[in-house]
Glutamate dehydrogenase
Amino acid sequence: MSYVDDVIELVVKQNPSEPEFHQAVKEVLESLRVVIEENEEEFKKNALLERLVNPERQLKFRVPWVDDNGQVQVNTGYRVQFNSAIGPYKGGLRFHPSVNVGIIKFLGFEQIFKNSLTGLPIGGGKGGSDFDPKGKSDREIMAFCQSFMTELCKYIGADTDVPAGDIGVGGREIGFLYGQYKRIKGLSEGVLTGKALSYGGSLTRTEATGYGLLYFTDEMLKNNDIDIKDKTIVVSGAGNVAIYAIEKAQQLGGKPVTCSDSTGWIYDPEGIDVELLKEVKEVKRARLTEYARERPSAEYHEGKGVWSIKCDIALPCATQNELDLEDAKILVENGVLAVAEGANMPTTIEATEYFQANDVLFGPGKASNAGGVATSALEMAQNSQRLSWTFEEVDSKLQNIMQNIFHNIDDAAKAYGLDKNYVAGANIAGFEKVVDAMNAQGIV
Ligand SMILES: NC(=O)C1=CN([C@@H]2O[C@H](COP(=O)(O)OP(=O)(O)OC[C@H]3O[C@@H](n4cnc5c(N)ncnc54)[C@H](O)[C@@H]3O)[C@@H](O)[C@H]2O)C=CC1
Ligand SMILES: O=C(O)CCC(=O)C(=O)O
């Protein structure tokens, strides 16, 4: 067995019941074979891969809080500080009932390579809780966030670990978390990103992941002689990433016609009304049925189904493993030209391979959704400078970063004779920088 196979087997053995973490590791290590095999003995002697797949530190803690009925509730909090070779741990917090250590580890592992691809000095980490924000009052959300931060604040800081949002964590939650950090530590510092503008946030951070996804997609399409104008685009999700992906897709002349949440999905053949979607999701925090009620051209369907709509471009922006082999077959049959991931690992390995085998351009999340964390790093830079940059300044840096990511992964793929395999290109380019930094710092 090769070194890569040994390490994949070790990960499965040492981390039982963590299928998403196994999946993320397999996907990365499989495409690194070509790099590892060039210098296998050296990598093995330095236990490079064993160090890469083992988090530097893994925190799990109790989060007690009091609900509106006076009942004490107990949730579990996590922070996985995966790899700091390039810079302070950086990555979001997810509040969702499905959260467990394996999910946080898959997200933290992906984050190492994504953050490396941004070209900015940030290491990889991720955290969260099995707390479900759905249906909770603002006071309950605040009570939970304060308790969560009371423990987490011992392990984070502007130069050590800088969390941000992810599923279930937006501006409201970041505000409560920041307030509690400042209260306990007495520090006004850039310890979190995704802050509001009034206390150190960056313009464009709200839009960054969705906009970045479209900057990347547009660059990938242009390099393959495809114009995004008038293309029909199918989007899943209706949260932060999906909303701003839809907005930028429209600005670039594309036509997004779907969105979805955890209970149902919208098909709007006239094109999604993004202002209405913002009103429903960001202001009212309501279901998509509300969108359909207000918009005569929209159809609402229960369950999952956006991938059944004929399209040129598919952008999965909801959650992991939401697009499987059956969905991929339907999309290919309907003539899809390109798929780019807004969410983290939304496409199963089998579906990804099916797209690649059928010449569908495929942008992997660690490259295509890196605009969010890249703009978080720009927020950190502004906080360190005690300055705020304009929307145009941040947006143009974001655009540059996403175009560079595309070209770096394209070059890395070509260097190994894997032209147009952007999955391999992203893993290789992300890995090479992390390995350089790890090697330079000795055995740590
Ligand atoms: N917010 C950010 O800056 C970044 C987010 N991501 C990823 O993008 C994805 C979406 O995150 P956000 O938009 O920030 O979260 P969000 O909480 O704003 O929205 C998530 C959306 O996905 C839907 N969703 C969640 N679970 C679902 C399920 N099981 N089935 C169907 N729909 C489901 C929700 O209803 C919601 O509309 C996640 O995979 C996240 O890790 C990736 C990079 C950065
Ligand atoms: O902005 C950040 O630090 C977090 C972004 C994130 O969680 C992600 O890229 O998946």
Observations:
- The longest strand covers residues 72-83.
- Residues 257 and 271 are 5 Å apart (CA to CA).
- The mean pLDDT is 98.
